[in-house]
Amino acid sequence: MSSFEQKRNKQVFEIIVILKIIYIALSMIAISSAYNFKKEIINVVLVPIVFSIILVAVLAYFSWIVVYIRGRIDKCPKIADYIETTIMLCVFILTIMTTGLQDSGYKLLGIFIVLIGAIQFGRNYSLGIATISMIIILAIDFLSIGSNKQLLSGYFEKDLILFSALFVTAFILGMYVDIEREHSKELKNLANIDELTGLYNHRYFQEFLQKAINNADKEKQEVSLLFMDIDYFKNFNDVNGHQAGDLILKEIGQIMKSCIRSTDAVARYGGEEFAAILPNTTEHDAVKIGERIRASIQNTDFKGQENQPDKNITISIGISSYPKRAISKHQLINTADDALYRAKSFNRNRVELYRGILDDLYENMEIDKDVVKFIKAFMNMINKKDRYTYRHTESVVIYAKYFGEYLNLTKKEKISLQVSAYLHDIGKLEIPDDVLNKKEKLTEAERQMFIKHPQTGVDLIKSIKQLDEFQPIIKHHHERYDGKGYPSGLKATEIPYLSRMLTIADSFDAMTSNRPYNKVKTQEEGIKELRDNAGTQFDPDLVEKFIEMLDKYKDKF
């Protein structure tokens, strides 16, 4: 709920409470004034008891109002609301019966019940109260006067103005409240809905996600988050025009909406990015929903899709969950975004579930806890400085993992390769941001910063004894097979074996992922680049094995 809604509901709540206080107070005054407590000595004892009981009942009633009514603004009436109204009408009957029946001057109190009903529940509810109030007054007149038609007619004429006031108040105020609520609902939709797609917008996404997380904490449930991005959307816009692109966004938005449940929320996060929040949903079920969305979009025939690289409109989806994969809203968004990046990096048109590679390494390779602690610290530093380097690092680790599996490395070698893959670019922490993300040609001084980053990385970890064994692999991951690399100019088998493996994984990911200074290549183009540089930049035997590994584990990338 927005701060504006909270403020408005608080003010409406205060009006309702004030009206109820006035109604109860006037009713109590009217009833108490009808008794002459001086006539009997026994009343000296009864009066305090009666008033104590009334006071306790009134205090209990207003305590209930504070707890219950506060959250009932703009809601449909429930059984408790009908019971409350019935009690108020009973108090109304008691007041009239104790203050002169047909001659009571307190018949006008009924208008308070009508006002409360109109403000709280709208026109229909208040008209119902006005009708019942009218019947109560007529019934009391009839029972008091009997069959004397002349007297009955006279009292009816006197009460006619009151009847009119009750009905006019119920109708006009109730209608105004209904109009105001409808208008407020429309304004809320304008504030929460993306005009182009008809989905929720980014603002509502943030609000709904926080609410879903809060509910998950209370109910001990999971919340899953899907981040979705249309593949090659810029290409579609460039070829078909932005109006065609807008139509695609709208169509895809409706497909997503049809694939989720009524309890879920799908939003346009920004540009061609969408997000779906799935309360009370495990990541396993979220993957099924993600696959349903992906398949539905892939199987839809969109106008202009023949101009796309794959001759089709497809979408990549990243999934994370709270609290299993993330412990806060911010982390949930980041992990889902990381999973989306991985899906985009690995050929697109896929659903990728977030899983920290470091967690996988720790659970399955029994890596030392201190090493994990140091790696996490360095990865957090990299993530804060440069999101691309962080994502690139995780992708390189994945390639390194399956490369090691394919080559049947020993357990110790697999650990060394993957840990080195995590740490291979930490030397870039010393490179200024403007240089790290520079699109133009680097100056010689800037180029030297990149050349020195393997040695800088080693310098950063050399004081950490637990990381000693990984230093050679990190230091030499930019050596070339022909001896023209850096920092030591090592050649062929002089380069550590694991460094030669890491060089290929590092270069292939750099070629096939989005970078600020390099045009992304397809996997096929990346493979061709590896082969073209086999024997010069890369170990030719390892290049072919890496390509074979890509084919064997193609479902992993």
UniProtKB/TrEMBL annotation:
Q: Under which name does UniProt file this protein?
A: Ggdef/hd domain protein
Occurrences of domain HD-GYP (ranges):
367-557
Keywords on record = Membrane, Transmembrane, Transmembrane helix
Q: Keyword Cell wall biogenesis/degradation, does the record have it? A: no
Query: Single Gene Ontology BP term?
Result: cell adhesion involved in single-species biofilm formation
Species of the source: Romboutsia ilealis
Could you confirm whether the keyword Transmembrane appears in this record? Answer: yes
According to the entry, every stretch annotated as the GGDEF domain falls at 221-356
Q: Which GO terms describe its cellular component?
A: plasma membrane
Q: Which GO terms describe its molecular function?
A: diguanylate cyclase activity
Pfam families documented for this protein: GGDEF (PF00990), HD_5 (PF13487)
Check the record and name the SUPFAM superfamilies matching this protein: HD-domain/PDEase-like, Nucleotide cyclase
**Could you list the residue ranges that cross the membrane?**
12-35, 41-67, 79-98, 129-148, 160-179
